[in-house]
């Protein structure tokens, strides 16, 4: 960081853009942390009001004057993405961030019902066929569906290779009785 000498107009531009940056970062955090829709909508309204106020006084974010005042900031291009421009650089409209939820938090799959779903999740999350990962997802679903069997001292859990090969399915399982 280095101190910069700014005239009053440039200082106003930078102050306005810093406020917009702060609101945008808060809105991104709200969406990433899965805040309630009402909170996200309130933050979008706040962004809308701040953006309209800024553009009324200093023009669009992508204007030359705003670029000169704020281009050295690492978040300037994030702010530029708030505006939709045509091929000639003319303002077309505001970005979806003003009205829609644009970020969803990542959701991990903890349970699947079929081996083919386990395979799809494994390839999607791991980029490869990961049999232990797949069996964990199937085992969780099995335990959830047949949780009453876990408490039986005569029940012996099946081998998950059978699950993966399609030989043994949850519909066919009624528990294995082991005699001592």
Tags for this entry?
4% strand; single chain; mainly alpha; 2 strands; 180 residues; 8 helices
Oligomer: single chain
Largest sheet: 2 strands, antiparallel
Shape: elongated
> Beta-strand percentage?
under 5%
Number of strands: 2
Structural class: mainly alpha
**What is the radius of gyration?**
27 Å
Folded structure, characterized:
The chain has 180 residues and is mostly helical. 53% of the residues lie in helices and 4% in strands. Strands 1-2 form a two-stranded antiparallel sheet. α1 (8-32) runs antiparallel to α2 (37-58), α1 (8-32) crosses α3 and α5 packs across α6 (131-145). Residues 160-169 have low confidence and may be disordered.
Structure in a nutshell:
By secondary structure, the chain is mainly alpha-helical.
SSE arrangement:
Elements: H1 8-32, H2 37-58, H3 64-70, H4 76-80, E1 83-85, E2 91-94, H5 115-126, H6 131-145, H7 147-150, H8 160-165
Helix pairs in contact: 1-2, 1-3, 5-6
């Amino acid at each position: 960081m280095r101190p910069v000498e700014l005239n009053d107009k440039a200082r106003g531009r930078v102050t306005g853009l810093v406020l917009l940056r702060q609101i945008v970062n808060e809105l991104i955090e709200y969406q990433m942390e899965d805040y309630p829709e009402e909170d996200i909508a309130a933050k979008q309204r706040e962004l809308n009001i701040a953006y309209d106020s800024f553009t009324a006084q200093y023009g669009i974010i992508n204007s030359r004057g705003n670029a000169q005042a704020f281009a050295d900031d690492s978040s300037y291009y994030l702010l530029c993405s708030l505006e939709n421009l045509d091929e000639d650089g003319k303002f077309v409209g505001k970005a979806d961030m003003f009205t829609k939820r644009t970020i969803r938090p990542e959701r991990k799959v903890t349970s699947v019902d079929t081996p083919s779903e386990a395979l799809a999740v494994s390839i999607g999350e791991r980029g490869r066929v990961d049999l232990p990962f797949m069996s964990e997802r199937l085992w969780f679903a099995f335990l959830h569906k047949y949780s009453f069997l876990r408490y039986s001292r005569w029940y012996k859990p099946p081998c998950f290779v059978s699950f993966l090969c399609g030989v043994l399915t949850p519909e066919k399982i009624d528990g294995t009785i082991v005699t001592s």
